[in-house]
Specification:
This protein is an alpha/beta fold. The protein has seven helices and 16 strands. It has three domains: 3-132 and 168-220, Alpha-Beta Complex (Spore Coat Polysaccharide Biosynthesis Protein SpsA, Chain A), CATH 3.90.550; 134-165, no CATH class; 230-301, no CATH class. The protein has helices at residues 29-40, 53-62, 80-88, 108-120, 179-185, 209-220, 247-260, and strands spanning 3-8, 23-24, 27-28, 45-50, 65-68, 95-99, 126-131, 141-143, 149-151, 169-178, 193-197, 230-232, 235-242, 265-272, 285-292, 300-301. The strands form four sheets. It has a seven-stranded mixed sheet with strand order 5-4-1-6-10-7-11, sandwiched between helices. A five-stranded mixed sheet has the order 12-13-14-15-16, with no helix packed on it. Helix 1 packs parallel to helix 2 and helix 1 crosses helix 4 (108-120). It is globular and about 55 Å long.
Length: 302
């Protein structure tokens, strides 16, 4: 079964100019996403669709194949569906994943595990990367031009939130789809739609400068893992870049790590660029932490 990644990356974004190649710690967002797709190990090919020469060069240098996008689908009104249909007209694949060029926080394991879910679940044709709502849509208020305000879902007025329906929202990370049905339906909102919950630490929809500033904060605060750099039997070496250390954040990272792998032992390390004073740890210091799934937290100054 041939599987490809399709990354739409036009050059003419208006609200946040050149957003697809904005630098994150010196590397274009697109470059990071291409490398994440390659590292996931589930794609036979990573294809970047663009009409822009600079973006094409960055994509090729990162290891992607460039698909020259026609000007007819390079405008503001063009959709990712248009882009994927165009690529699929010239590239054979049974399954594909449309990955957003700005989803630089996305972890390769998330792509791989979502791929496995699509393959295993035969009765879905599209698997969408989603998030929970930060505020329930059933509490939404409709604000009219006149200034009048009313409940958007008055049927849920007075209902306790634990009794609201379970809902999710597409989060600007990825869509998996089966080629044959996608060509028929021409939408990612398939009649047979499934969802995959993407960790909040890997989600940052990017449309404005405020969004980009938030992405930088997420990256620098250590809310995401720098990719695993070594795996040997049951030992994992992982470096996590953090800017403010706390027991809560450290334990949160460890819980995420333990749920991502079946390894029994870990060598876990982080570097602190800045932190409030915690004992003798402040400024630039290094710690090594050795732990097992049976012993959650031990730290030794290095």
């Amino acid at each position: 079964m041939k599987c490809i990644a399709i990354i739409p990356a036009r050059g003419g974004s208006k609200r946040l100019p050149r957003k697809n190649i904005l630098p994150l710690h010196g590397e274009p967002l697109l470059s990071r996403v291409v490398k994440t797709c390659i590292k996931a190990g589930c794609f036979d090919e990573v294809v970047v669709s663009t009409e822009d020469a600079e973006i094409a060069s960055i994509a090729e240098n990162a290891g992607a194949r460039v698909h020259c996008r026609p000007e007819s689908i390079a405008g503001d009104r063009s959709t990712v569906v248009d882009v994927c249909l165009d690529v699929l007209n010239s590239v054979e694949a049974e399954v594909f994943c449309c990955v957003y060029a700005t989803s630089a926080l996305l972890h390769h394991d998330t792509l791989l595990e979502s791929f496995k879910k699509l393959v295993k679940t035969k009765d879905i044709n599209v698997l969408m990367g989603v998030s929970e709502y930060q505020h329930s849509p059933f509490q939404a208020l409709l604000v009219e031009d006149s200034g009048r305000v009313e409940l958007l879902h008055p049927e849920y007025h007075g209902v306790q939130s634990q009794f609201y329906p379970k809902v999710r929202v597409s989060n600007g990370t990825f869509y998996w789809a089966r080629r044959a049905t996608f060509l028929e339906e021409e939408t990612f909102y398939s009649k047979k739609l499934g969802v995959y919950d993407v960790p909040d630490s890997e989600v940052c929809d990017l449309d404005t400068q405020d969004d980009f500033d938030r992405l930088l904060r997420l990256y620098e605060e250590g809310s995401v893992f720098i990719p695993v750099i070594n795996l040997w039997k049951d030992l994992v070496m992982l470096w996590v870049l953090v800017s403010e250390i706390s027991i809560f954040r450290t334990n949160h990272l460890l819980v995420q790590l333990l749920t991502r792998t079946n390894a029994d032992h870990f060598l876990f390390g982080f570097r602190c660029h800045y932190s409030r004073k915690i004992g003798d740890l402040h400024g630039r210091n290094f710690l090594h932490i050795y732990l097992t799934t049976d012993h959650v937290f031990k730290s030794v100054p290095y």
